[in-house]
Amino acid sequence: MDYQTGFFYLFSTVMLFAAYRVITSRNPVHAVLYLMLAFSQAAALWLILKAEFLGLTLVLVYLGAVMVLFLFVVMMLDIKIDDDRWGFWQNFPLAATIGALIAAELIAVLWIGFPNVTTPAAMVGQGAEVSNTKALGRLLFSEYLYPVEVAAVILLVAMVTAIALTLRQRKDSKAIDPGQQVHVRASDRLVVLPMAATQKTMPVQTAAAEEGKA
């Protein structure tokens, strides 16, 4: 067994363990963390299978954005799911059947393979070695250049719109405008009042008379 096969079995074992802990963990935060671990191992398997684009996309999109969002949402909502686990065993037969069907389909695909799919070397020419990422990059930025640019502009507009919708002025905020701080003068902040250095004490009789009148 070579090192590539060893890494394949290692990543597969960790991914299966993480997937099992996703559905058995009682803490939702732990479940999300185990799901992130499963996605990372799946990305490593994609890299071993020479599908670099899929592996990097899985890391950037799911681990970098979606799963982090799920983690923050779960932590902020503080979900209590102890009372919702009563329906787990009721739905377990259907879930097990669907899982077994998907596993059988995957095994059949891996066992039979894709006999009609041509390799990149056969498409380019005999003896030519073409990377998947390089071939996909050439395709995206040559034939599908305008759709890629349109998608980038749409994503940029969506990001700016999300920031604009969530950026609101709070009335109870104590934020200070730096422009106003720069133009502030000392006379606007400090007022000097003329006061005598010392005051004369009142005589004792006068003070007692005033207290009697009061």
How would you portray this structure in words?
- With 214 residues, the chain is mainly alpha-helical.
- Among the domains are: 1-81, Four Helix Bundle (Hemerythrin (Met), subunit A); 131-165.
- It contains ten helices and no strands.
- It has helices spanning 3-24, 28-48, 52-77, 88-112, 120-124, 132-140, 145-166, 178-182, 186-189, 204-213.
- Helix 1 runs antiparallel to helix 2 (28-48) and helix 2 packs antiparallel against helix 3 (52-77).
- It is elongated, with a radius of gyration of 35 Å.
- It starts with a helix and ends with a helix.
- Mean pLDDT is 76; it is low at 121-127.
From the N-terminal CA to the C-terminal CA, the straight-line distance is 106 Å
Which class of the domain at 1-81 in CATH terms? Mainly Alpha
Order of helices and strands: HHHHHHHHHH
What CATH architecture of the domain at 1-81 do you see?
A: Up-down Bundle
What is the helix tally?
10
Q: What ranges have pLDDT less than 50 throughout 5 or more consecutive residues?
A: 121-127
Task: Could you tell me the CATH topology label of the domain at 1-81.
Answer: Four Helix Bundle (Hemerythrin (Met), subunit A)
Strand content: under 5%
The average pLDDT value, as a whole number, equals 76
Gyration radius, to the nearest Å? 35 Å
The main β sheet shows up as: none
Shape: elongated
Total number of strands:
0
The helix content, as a percent range, equals 55-70%
CATH superfamily of the domain at 1-81: NADH-ubiquinone/plastoquinone oxidoreductase chain 6, subunit NuoJ
Structural class by secondary-structure content: mainly alpha
